[in-house]
TrEMBL record:
Keywords: Cytoplasm, Histidine metabolism, Lyase. It catalyses: L-histidine = trans-urocanate + NH4(+). It comes from the Bacteria. The gene is hutH. One of its GO terms (molecular function) is histidine ammonia-lyase activity. There is a cross-link at residues 141-143 (5-imidazolinone (Ala-Gly)). Its main location: cytoplasm. Pathway: Amino-acid degradation; L-histidine degradation into L-glutamate; N-formimidoyl-L-glutamate from L-histidine: step 1/3. This is Histidine ammonia-lyase. GO terms for cellular component: cytoplasm. Gene3D superfamilies: Fumarase/aspartase (Central domain) (1.20.200.10), Fumarase/aspartase (N-terminal domain) (1.10.275.10).
Amino acid sequence: MITLTGQNLTLEQMKEVLYENQKVSASLSSMKAAAKSREAVEKIVSESRVVYGITTGFGKFSDVLIDKENVQDLQLNLIRSHACGVGEPFPEIVAKAMVLLRANALLKGYSGIRPLVIERLIDLVNKNIIPVIPQQGSLGASGDLAPLSHLALVLIGEGEVFYKGYRIDSLEAFQQEGIFPVTLEAKEGLALINGTQAMTAMGVVGYLEAEQLAFQSELISSMTIEGLNGIMDAFTEEVHIARGYKQQIETAARIREYLSDSLLTTIQGELRVQDAYSLRCIPQVHGATWQALDYVKEKLEIEMNSATDNPLIFDDGDTVISGGNFHGQPIAFAMDFMKIAVAEMANISERRIERLINPQLNDLPPFLSPEQGLQSGAMIMQYVAASLVSENKTLAHPASVDSIPSSANQEDHVSMGTIASRHAYQIIQNTRRVLAIELICAMQAVEYRGVEKMASKTRLLYDKGREMVPSITKDRIFSKDIEKAADGLKKMKLQFLRQLDILK
C-alpha cells in the first residue's frame, strides 16, 4: 500500500501503482489538511464573500457573482460544459495515472475540496475504474481543462469508464463496486479540472517507458558492436572522465560491462583504426539522452506533488489567491526536451542499422540476406526505420513555442504542454520500433560472426530476442517480426534487466 500525502510521491511509486497494481491510500494528516481547507470554502460561501471560482463564474466570467443557492449548479455546469475533449482516449494506464495525480494534488490541502471527493478518486484507482478521457482539446494552461472534465464526469456518475475489459457507463461500474457518485459542492468542480495532471500523467508514463528504452538501447547497441566487430578502446573510462559528464561516463561503463567477455569485439588497429560515430560515440549521444531524461524526471516529480489549481487557499481561508500554478510551461519544456532526447536514440540507432545491412560498410552478407538477390533480407527494415526517424523529426518540433489566446483573451498565453507530452509518447513508440529493427539486424549479424563468441550478457538478450523473433532463413512478412520485437521490448520484465545489472 502506498500512502499519498501530496508531498512525496515518486516515479518509482507511480510505476508500482500503474504496472504492478499497487493500492493507494491517503494519509490521515493530509485528509485533515483537506478538511480544514474545505471548512474555509464553506465559510466563504456562507459569508457571500467574492472569491473567484467559489462565488463567481470562471475565466472571463470571473466578475459575475453567483448566488449561494446556485453553487451546485455552477460546478455541474462547469464540468459538463468543459467536457468537450475529442479524439482517441488516452491509454488506460495514462488515465489511471491522471486520477492518482489529481488525488495527490488535492491532498496538499490548498484546494478546498471535501475529503469525500478525494476518497472517490482513490476508489477509482484501487478498483481500476478508469475514466475514458479524450486525448485532444487541452491548451495546457488554465490546467488541462477538457481532459480533467471528462475525469470529473465519472465522479458525478456521468461519462464512461474502462472497467474489467469493457468500456461502459460510469454508473454501471459504480453499481458493480457498490460505490456512489458525488454531488459537487462549491469550488469542487474547479478544483478537479484546474491542473496539469493530463500532461503530467502522459509525461510520467512516457518517461517510464523512455527510461526502460534507454537502458535497452545500450544493450542492443552493444550487440551491434559485436555484429560489426566494434573497437572497444573508445569506451575506455579515462576517455569519458576526461570530458566529465556523469551520464556519459555511466553509459560507457555499462557498455564495457556488457561486452567484458566478448570474443567479437576488437581493439584499435586490429581490423581498423576507429569506428564510425554511430558506434564510437554511443556514450556521448546516449549519455546526452540520459542528461535530458534526468531533467525530465526532476520536473515530473516536482509537478506530481504540486498544487496546480486556482485559486489556492491559505491561512485557514483568510487568504485566497488567484495565481497561475495551472500553467504547464515547466512540463511543456520537459516534454519537448524528452521528445528530442528520445528521437536522437532512434536517429543513431537507424545509422547503426544501416551499418549492419550495407555491404559497403561491413563484411557481412548484403542486407543480411540468407540468399543474396533471391532473398531481400533486412533491406526494407532499414526503410521503415528511416521513415520512423523522419516522422520523429516532425513530432519533435517543440509544442511549447506555440500559444493561442483563449477565453476572450483572458487566458492569453498557454503552454501546449499536453500536446508536447502526447507527441513525446508517439516518439517513444516509434523509437522502440527502430530499436526493435536494430535488435533483429544485430541478432542476425552475430549469428554470422558466431553466437558462441558473444558476451554472456548480450547472449542473454540474444536468447530473449530469439524467443520473440526467429532467425532469418528466408524472406517473410517482417512487419510481424518488428511488432513482436517492439512488443517484447515494451513488456520486458524488470527482473530481466536486473539480471543484467542494468537496474540495481
